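User: I'm putting together a teaching handout on how multi-component assemblies are represented. Below are the sequence lines for each component of a complex, exactly as they appear in our records. Could you produce the 3D structure of the whole assembly as structure tokens, so the students can see both representations side by side? Please keep the chain order the same as the input.
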Amino acid sequence: MRWRALLLALALAAAGAPALAAEAQPTGRDSVAAARAVKLSEKLRCLVCQNQSIADSNAELAQDLRGQIREQIAAGKTDDEIVAYMVARYGDFVLYEPPFRATTVLLWAGPALLILGGFVGLVRFLAARRAAPPSPELSPEERQRAERLLAGSEDTAA
Amino acid sequence: MRLKLLAPLAVFIVICGFLLIGLWRDPREVPSPLIGKPAPAFTLTQLHEPAKTLGPADLKGQVWLLNVWASWCVSCREEHPLLVALGKANIVPIIGLDYKDEITAGKRWLTDNGNPYTTSVVDRDGKVGIDWGVYGVPETFVIDKAGTIRYKQIGPLTAEALETKIVPLIRELQKS
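Assistant: Of course. Below is the structure of the complete assembly, with chains in the same order as your input.
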């Protein structure tokens, strides 16, 4: 009797195992989708709180937009399509990484230009200093005054 | 040589100028990419007559306003008297988009505060709001006869914005 119960339990467990495995699969796919949703929502700015991403923000709009992202991922949209969807509605402002365009050239190239300008300035400054005549020697009087000052006595020559 | 010494000062003044301009700009006003684009389509049920629906397609051929409001929205109270006055002036149909609101609360709010809307429609889950790029209620859109969005007011309407921008724009669009 006991054996029979054990066999029955084993049979049930064996029958249940594939069912469990089949159920586990979508969960695995979901976690990939969830990771994509999180990654995307970290790239998008919340318009209500502006200095938080949609992933960080608890504003209702951010929650709704996270919902939108999840829905669109489930609908098979690519990341680019989802980002384009957000930009079409809220503008480039939603992107933490602004696109490279005629209007954003200064933004992207500005730091490099500043560094380049500073480097050119430094090279020219150093070249000019090297080319300049060395500073003239001190006259005997100046030398004496300097010695007095270094010795710590009163400066009387002035 | 002396001019060269002034260069850093000049750069500093230019930067100060940009920062000063920045001080007067409202960072909450994000320019909408929808201006000049066709109004996003929707078909939503009406607040007072749930059996009927309304959408931008029904309003083609006339200039109209879309005002996004909600009973929970505090700054909507601020602009509401202006909307009521605009509604009374009967210049333009004002469509209210009751955004993420309870239907009973929305109706009660209009009863208590006056109903300036030609029709209000209910955006229960805020999806239409997202399509219209709504991020801060209240918002007001001006849509022309062809169904193109021409103007967006973010935040409460002001008497100044109405007089200097919105009403003149409506009259101009109605002429064309």
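A couple of points students might notice: The helical segments of chain A are 2-43, 60-74, 79-90, 105-131, 140-151. Residues 18-27 of chain A have pLDDT under 50 and may be disordered.
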